[in-house]
Amino acid sequence: MGFVLRTARGEADLALVRAVRRDVFIVEQNVPEELEYDEYDATAVHVLALAEDGTALGTGRLIFGAQAAELTGGVEGRVLLGRLAVRAAARGTGLGAALVRAIEAAGAERGGVEVELHAQVQALGFYERLGYAADGPVYDDAGIPHRTMTRVL
């Protein structure tokens, strides 16, 4: 399956980002809609994965700067990767890993030296294969067990 990655620009791209997240988190995983979309969406960098025909396949976001510091405990140079979502039809194609690497690159471009993410426990192996290490205990986020993970860029 071929795909193209790009930074979401404009309202049409952001609508595609929201649609992917709705399908994956709200519909598939029963995350309450009011928890899925937050104030960080307005300033985050959103990476969008599109099929050759323009269908949105996946997305993820980068929070950086003062907002990342607020969410990661103030660790200098740490950025936050989040809301990584790949539609079921595109899973197992390498798209998720490509999204992670694109978000990491966007973080490095903005001065990030380390990435933090909050992984669903069922996805720990995926992130470990990409060089992330779990840090701290399992905790609940939107009714789903999560664990914080980090990786030096």
Question: What's the topology here?
Answer:
Layout: E1 3-7, H1 10-28, H2 33-36, E2 45-51, E3 56-63, H3 65-71, E4 78-86, H4 95-109, E5 114-120, H5 124-129, E6 133-141, E7 144-152
Parallel strand pairs: 4-5
Antiparallel strand pairs: 1-2, 2-3, 3-4, 5-7, 6-7
Specify the CATH homologous superfamily: Gcn5-related N-acetyltransferase (GNAT)
If you consult CATH, what is the topology?
A: Aminopeptidase
- What level of helicity do the residues show? 25-40%
Mean pLDDT: 95
Largest sheet: 7 strands, mixed
Query: Which architecture does the CATH hierarchy give at level 2?
Result: 3-Layer(aba) Sandwich
GO molecular function, one term: acyltransferase activity, transferring groups other than amino-acyl groups
Protein name: Acetyltransferase
Domain N-acetyltransferase: 3-153
Pfam families: Acetyltransf_10
Summarize the structure.
With 153 residues, this protein is α+β, with helices and mostly antiparallel strands. Helices cover 33% and strands 35% of the residues.
Question: What do you see in this structure?
Answer:
By secondary structure, this protein is of the alpha+beta class. The chain has one domain: Gcn5-related N-acetyltransferase (GNAT) (Aminopeptidase, 3-Layer(aba) Sandwich). It contains five helices and seven strands, in the order βααββαβαβαββ. It has helices spanning 10-28, 33-36, 65-71, 95-109, 124-129; strands at residues 3-7, 45-51, 56-63, 78-86, 114-120, 133-141, 144-152. It has a seven-stranded mixed beta sheet, with helices on both faces. The longest helix is centred in the first third of the chain and has 19 residues, at 10-28. The chain is globular and about 40 Å long. The two termini are 28 Å apart. The model has no long low-confidence stretch (mean pLDDT 95). Residues 3-153 form the N-acetyltransferase domain.
